[in-house]
């Protein structure tokens, strides 16, 4: 029987990147995808076109319309492929900080209970297969906002002598902070992934991502900030920056660079690993800097305004410390910076975005 990879959220940005990569590595891929993104963010965020594209491009790919909250359905799927599963890549999620407050039970059901269902199925049917989980830096809540940031002309920034200047590592506490409901549900999932690694000695990893991005990002209003920002510049759609005078900083990692990190872990897994992963000092920007870069690449100005309040629990500054992962996986390196990422997003989506506005 062929070696199998199971990828949840296989029609999304990171899921579809994982499918392409794993097929290229010689695995058959079983995707779990029910297009909840369209109900979360509207039809423009639908993953159905990507799923269909993957089906056409790769005979080695099969997509199952399955909700990860369906414990029995998840168990049956894993049981069907027991003995052949070599890796599980779990990217399915309700991914929006803002949307979670609308339906907390849905958010928690997908992010936390869905992850538990997958871990139980993996423990029963492929306990030795690496279990790779897309977590988030939102597990730290608003603790990063206590950092002594300097107010520079285009960004907030740490002093160079601060312990986190090169990036925040996993020594930062996740306690005594406001997480947002999304951050809480993802923290529950993150801890479950770690616990299955420790308690059952399974090869698990939680990758606590900063902003995940790439040319395949749908660019919905509540999710996919760089893609949505570029879309607004191209289409002339007004944009709102929430708080901090537009000087809040994010690191941004290209989907291909993140999947390369997945592959490094797949080849040399550990039990209960956890890493902060993002663009680090190589690929980061403030909102003001992102707007300037989008305008420069697109050759158009953005109509934007500053909203009065930041989102609850939102970070003023986040840059990931990549050194722990680089120490464990020295062959891995980032290959995409901010300008390269934005240029790819622009070139990949320009024709489609312009067609949509007539």
In words, what does this structure look like?
With 358 residues, the chain is α/β, with parallel strands linked by helices. Helix content is 40%, strand content 18%. The protein has helices at 13-24, 36-41, 48-57, 71-80, 104-125, 180-200, 225-235, 255-267, 287-298, 323-328, 338-356, and strands at 4-8, 28-32, 61-64, 85-90, 131-136, 150-151, 156-157, 204-209, 211-213, 239-242, 249-254, 273-277, 284-286, 304-307, 317-318. The protein has a seven-stranded parallel beta sheet with strand order 3-2-1-4-5-8-12, with helices on both faces. Strands 9, 11, 13 and 15 form a four-stranded mixed beta sheet that branches. A hairpin with a 4-residue loop joins strand 6 (150-151) and strand 7. The mean pLDDT is 95.
How large is the radius of gyration? 19 Å
Task: Tell the overall outline.
Answer: globular
Report how far the terminal alpha carbons are from each other: 49 Å
Mean of the pLDDT scores? 95
Total beta-strand segments: 15
% residues in beta strands: 15-25%
**Helix-strand sequence:** EHEHHEHEHEEEHEEHEEHEEHEEHH
How is the topology of this model organized?
Blueprint: E1 4-8, H1 13-24, E2 28-32, H2 36-41, H3 48-57, E3 61-64, H4 71-80, E4 85-90, H5 104-125, E5 131-136, E6 150-151, E7 156-157, H6 180-200, E8 204-209, E9 211-213, H7 225-235, E10 239-242, E11 249-254, H8 255-267, E12 273-277, E13 284-286, H9 287-298, E14 304-307, E15 317-318, H10 323-328, H11 338-356
Parallel strand pairs: 1-2, 1-4, 2-3, 4-5, 5-8, 8-12, 9-11, 10-14, 11-15
Antiparallel strand pairs: 6-7, 11-13
Helix pairs in contact: 1-8, 4-5, 5-6, 7-9, 7-11, 9-11
